Amino acid sequence: MADARRRSTPTAGELAAWREYIEASERIRRAIAAGLADQEGISPGDYGVLLALAEAPDRRLRSSALADAVGWERSRLSHHLARMERRGLIAREECGTDSRGADVVITAEGLHVFRRSSASHFALIRDLFVDALTPAQLDALQEASAAIRTHLAEQGAPDAIAG
Amino acid sequence: MADARRRSTPTAGELAAWREYIEASERIRRAIAAGLADQEGISPGDYGVLLALAEAPDRRLRSSALADAVGWERSRLSHHLARMERRGLIAREECGTDSRGADVVITAEGLHVFRRSSASHFALIRDLFVDALTPAQLDALQEASAAIRTHLAEQGAPDAIAG
DNA sequence: CCAATCCGATTGACGCGTCAATCATTCCCG
DNA sequence: CGGGAATGATTGACGCGTCAATCGGATTGG
After folding, report:
1. Terminal CA-to-CA distance of chain B, rounded, Å?
2. Cα nearest neighbour of B139 on chain A
3. pLDDT per residue as tens digits for the range A90-114
4. For the HTH marR-type domain, which residue ranges apply (chains A, B) (predicted)?
């Protein structure tokens, strides 16, 4: 891959940091998801889609624009939209200019759910994430996360730049 | 707790930190999983199970002990073991002392896969995670992650203490 | 000894995510 | 025009994760 040949394996400390990091991130992800499911009956993915649509001009987006907005692969979005459509949160409508794909629109119900959910969403982030950290830790976390994303975009997947 | 402002919604900066954090963690998780799948044909979950079994006395564990070791729910482990058994990585054997459940053992094939995978696993962690960060960032990340875990254990799920 | 119960573990249903394959429409070149 | 290739999007298969229900052996109280 890179220039280097075989380099050293991570130290015990580095491995411990990795484990702590990945463990914490999965736990908080699950906790937020569980809280959102419990309080509002939606998943973080649902929330992201509703947010993107609610903020879009005319509250409608082409599938691919929506995929870019939430940073997902097409097929993932397609599956997710199918589930959300089944629940009445979004709908697909013919698009005048190019009938290869449909516009995705948020329903009245979807908009209602989105507005109701925002408070829960914010409260969960505050209670489980922000309140867990000092301001300095929060900054450090953001900085390190940005470094990881940049590094992944350079090293790993060129498409991972998202947004 | 006395601070009333703590009840307000997260600030824009706090939200941005959250988004950066969760985005980075999901991306790196996927990248590691993809690399491991690509190079060794296993998932991080497979690796964790194989590791726990390889390190266990006699290379065997009761299901519940294994669940504790990897920090998973029972049913998740049960499903995962079914898939791993199908692939010949582990096997279930009768347990002498209590035949309600079986011992989980690692097969020769599983042990082989585990040993082969370790190098890839370490290299991926080094390339995608450790190399992305300065030593100070790594430390800060570990510390913040630990704070999140502690906080979740206190606030969220009392059972989340895991391992 | 036998029922009630507890406990270890599995199962089924269903949502979620990825990959590869597929459709349908539009674009483009002859 | 007509017949590909490119593009927008969906589908199917399958692994993964959670919840609720269940199963069967172990315990225990009468």
Report:
1. 29
2. A17
3. 999 987 788 888 899 999 999 999 9
4. 1-150
Using the CA of A65, give the nucleotide whose C1' is nearest. Answer: D8
Class in CATH terms, B11-155: mainly alpha
Q: In 10 A of CB B2, how many CB atoms?
A: 4
**pLDDT tens for each residue of B10-59:** 999 999 999 999 999 999 999 999 999 999 999 999 999 999 999 999 99
* CA angle centred on B29, ends B91 and B70, rounded to 5°: 35
Domain ranges of chain A: 11-155
Contact criterion met (CB below 8 Å) for A124 and A35: yes
CB burial of A121-131 (b: ≥16 within 10 Å; e: otherwise) equals bbbbbbbbbbe
The vertex-A49 CA angle with A155 and A144, nearest 5°, equals: 35
CA pair distance B70, B58, nearest whole angstrom: 17
Find, among A144, A129, A76, the residue nearest to B130 by Cα. A144
For residue B106, give how far its alpha carbon lies from the nearest alpha carbon of chain A (Å). 23
